[in-house]
Design goal:
The structure holds two protein chains of two kinds. Chain A is built from six helices and 16 strands. By secondary structure, chain A is α/β, with parallel strands linked by helices. Chain A has two domains: 122 residues, Beta Barrel (Elongation Factor Tu (Ef-tu), domain 3), CATH 2.40.30; 128 residues, Rossmann fold (3-Layer(aba) Sandwich). Chain A is globular. Chain B is an alpha/beta fold. Chain B is built from ten helices and 16 strands. In chain B, helix 7 packs parallel to helix 8 and helix 8 crosses helix 10. Chain B is globular, with a radius of gyration of 19 Å. The N and C termini of chain B lie far apart (51 Å). The chains are: A alpha/beta, B alpha/beta. At the A-B interface, strand 1 and strand 14 of A face helix 1, strand 5, strand 6 and helix 9 of B.
Chain lengths: 308, 330
């Protein structure tokens, strides 16, 4: 009996394959799309860091995509009493941001609101919350900002209600023109408005210096650090391109800062069965991004070796 | 059990015989899940009704634990997937301690896939599993969790062993005989398509005492990244699977099933019922679904449902009668 209880506690995350109605699927930056779909009321709500996989409907002759695409959750709206203006329903809605990169995401971008997508969710682990007295430094690079906006939104809302942990978003882009929800990209409902609010408070780093700090996210953090009274109480959260995470890990290690990153890798099953999406661990082993992560303590992964 | 899962619950019509017989073993239906795509059953537990599967072929078990190959291990191709996992697994002891107790809770047929670098490796894995079951002191009626073995002589992703066995009829015959001496459970030899004539290999396995042939493992393939100027996966070439290889698997099944008298289990690119029915018409008595699971974990149930509908439409009573329905080409 006891064993059964322990086993059921250790496997309490229940994933599900669902045909979810699309609520929003519209551009928020060049080649970046905001996707939102309905979330069943009896499914555990996703946490920042977790992801889902979606099967793109085949549209192009010969494009021949086969695999599901993993996407990080970028926001969650709980079910409401009132009907949602966009979906006409009161159900919960989850959000994600994806970049149109190949035939799979191109097909996904063609899904009209009201159509259904084949989703498996929720998958993977989530970011641990900052400990007492820690300030969350939420660093995102490029399309990696999705899960970071979710984490920031959660802390932001907790702050409004209970005075939760302090946080600072630090976001890196190649250029200002790639920052989402700027001119020409109208917002799509309450989540996009919340993202816009968070983006207005974010510290930006751009490669070309067209907005905020000129340089990388890590350069920006180095410049912020001396101004902080107690940077050792930072907790860095990161998601972005491999080179960014590698240098962010080095930065965190040098300054003895706690750090958790959400990793990315080519993925097949998404549930831990195929061992395809591994990254090299610091101890010379391999860890599955889908099932052992996607969130890892920064020094658990050999980010440099994972760069090839 | 949740609502989405409940939709998958079904009971086959009483007038149909879906059972498959491999040596002394009877599978409840012809649709299994392929080795390496389903772990040891735990990972898909929440998405797939495992008890309804015809058979679960485990991820390969080797003598020693293996970490597997460097990353990246995967690349998608048109209607296909190249993998180079490198038989990452906890080793036979890890399998017996951690995986088997969970596996044996399932009611479906469980086939343990075995891989090795040398003939002795294969023999020792089978021996250790047999010894473990013999001393485990099971209650009467309790399941051992091991209904048979699938011998992987066709993995393209390891330096030693694997495919080098699968291309040599003499080695195949000897290995099969040696394993036959160590177990009374059915032995299924899983063959590589990367050979001149797969029928020669199948005949050697049959002569060695194999109870069935799984046909086919992955096809060697490579994708090159034109910007990074190197192969897309770390080890270079890997094993191509998915719908892209289905016609290769069907042709191999057709050929092998005419070369041997033992049952053939067809696999390679099955995603839909008609894919599986093609394999059954080509001569297979059962099928496995692999890569399609990654896209659609419901594929095994959908394929089985579709086979049943097709059998009813074509007034076929038994799955094993399907193979006799093919009109032979000129």
């Amino acid at each position: 009996m006891c064993i059964v209880l322990i086993e059921s506690l250790s496997r309490w995350i229940i994933m599900r394959q669902l045909n979810a109605p699309v609520v929003i699927n519209k551009a928020i930056a060049p080649n970046w799309v905001h996707l939102a779909f309905e979330w069943p009321s009896d499914l555990q709500e996703p946490k920042p860091g977790q992801f889902f996989t979606v099967l793109p409907a085949m549209v192009e002759l010969g494009a021949g995509t086969l695999l599901r695409r993993p996407l990080a959750f970028a926001g969650f709206e709980p079910a409401k009493q009132k009907k949602n203006a966009l979906s006409g329903k009161s159900s919960a809605i989850v959000h994600a941001i994806y970049q149109i990169r190949g035939p799979g995401t191109k097909a996904l971008a063609l899904q009209a609101p009201g159509s259904r997508i084949d989703v498996i969710a929720p998958l993977g682990n989530s970011f641990p919350w900052p400990r007492q007295g820690e300030k969350a430094i939420i660093a995102g690079g490029g399309i990696g900002i999705g899960p970071m906006l979710f984490l920031a939104a959660s802390l932001f809302q907790e702050n409004l209600q209970l005075g939760g942990p302090e946080f600072q978003l630090v976001l890196g882009f190649r250029s200002a023109s790639l920052i989402p929800l700027r001119v020409g990209f109208s917002d799509g409902g309450p989540m996009a408005s919340l993202w816009k609010e968070l983006l207005s408070r974010a510290f930006f780093a751009t490669d070309d210096g067209s907005e905020g700090f000129r340089g990388t996210v890590v350069d920006a953090l180095s410049s912020l650090k001396p101004k902080e009274t107690s940077p050792e109480a930072w907790h860095i959260y990161g998601c972005g391109p491999g080179p960014m995470l590698a240098s962010l890990a080095k930065f965190a290690k040098t300054h003895h800062i706690a750090a958790h990153f959400s990793a990315e890798q080519w993925m097949a099953c998404g549930v831990g069965a195929c061992h395809g999406c591994v990254l090299p661990s610091a101890s010379g082993d391999f860890l599955r991004v889908c099932a052992d992560g996607p969130v890892f303590e920064a020094d658990r992964i050999d980010w440099e070796a994972g760069l090839r | 059990m949740n609502a989405e899962k409940k939709q998958n619950v079904f009971s086959p019509p009483a007038d149909l015989d879906l059972s498959v017989h491999i040596g002394s073993l009877a599978m409840s239906n012809p649709v299994g899940v392929a080795s390496g795509t389903f772990g040891y059953g735990e990972e898909y537990d929440e998405l797939v009704r495992i008890d309804a599967l015809g058979a679960l072929y485990t991820k390969a078990v080797t003598l020693e634990p293996r970490r597997g190959n460097p990353a990246p291990r995967l690349v998608e191709t048109p209607m296909g997937l190249i993998n180079s996992i490198g038989l990452a697994n906890p080793g036979v002891e890890g399998f017996l301690q951690e995986k088997l107790p969970l596996l044996r809770r399932h009611r479906c047929t469980i086939i343990v896939n075995v891989a090795g670098s040398t003939e002795d490796d294969y023999a020792e894995v089978v021996e250790r599993i047999e010894d473990h079951i013999a001393v485990a002191g099971m209650e009467p009626g309790e399941r051992s969790g091991v209904d048979g073995y699938e011998i992987n002589v066709s993995c393209p992703n390891v330096h030693k062993g694997g495919m080098s066995f699968g291309i040599d009829p003499v080695l195949i015959g000897r290995l099969t005989r040696s394993l036959k001496d160590r177990t009374r459970r059915p032995l299924i030899l899983k063959l590589s398509p990367n050979v001149t004539d797969i029928a020669d290999i199948a005949r050697a396995a049959e002569a060695g005492g194999a109870d069935a042939i799984s046909c086919i493992n992955t096809v060697v393939g490579m994708v090159i990244d034109t910007e990074k100027l190197r192969p897309a996966i770390a080890r270079g070439a890997g094993g191509l699977s998915g719908p892209a290889i289905r016609p290769i698997g069907i042709a191999a099944t057709y050929r092998v099933s005419r070369a041997v008298h033992i049952p053939v289990i067809g696999l390679g690119g099955i995603a839909h019922p008609s894919d599986a029915i093609q394999y059954l018409l080509a001569g297979a008595q059962a099928v496995q679904i692999g890569t399609a699971l990654f896209s659609n974990p419901r594929a095994p149930q959908e394929v089985l449902d579709g086979i049943i509908v097709w059998m009813q439409q074509h007034s076929v009573h038994s799955v094993c009668d399907i193979r006799s329905m093919l009109e032979e080409p000129e």
